[in-house]
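Hey L., structure's done. Input below.
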Amino acid sequence: MMTVSFSIPTTSSLLAAKFNHAPLIPLVDVASEYLGITPSTAKRKARCNDLPFPVFRLSDSQKAPWLVKFEHLVEYIERVSAISHKDWLRMQC
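Output:
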């Protein structure tokens, strides 16, 4: 008898597939879905370093896009998820 094994997809693997395994993701691509803010608000917060993860530009040009390192986005999502899970568990008692 053959056993079939499968692995549960991780946040990292699912996001990698979603963003085509890109190491850097434009901030505007994550602003609304993961931060719940508009791209223009995300850009304004980026200029003030007021986002929950680091962002940067690859040049000094004002027109250069703000970028998020893939690992930083994954860490942010995992951190928020863990906090939410702890809160949920605490409320189950």
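The mean pLDDT is 94. Helices lie at 11-18, 27-35, 39-47, 70-91.

-- N.
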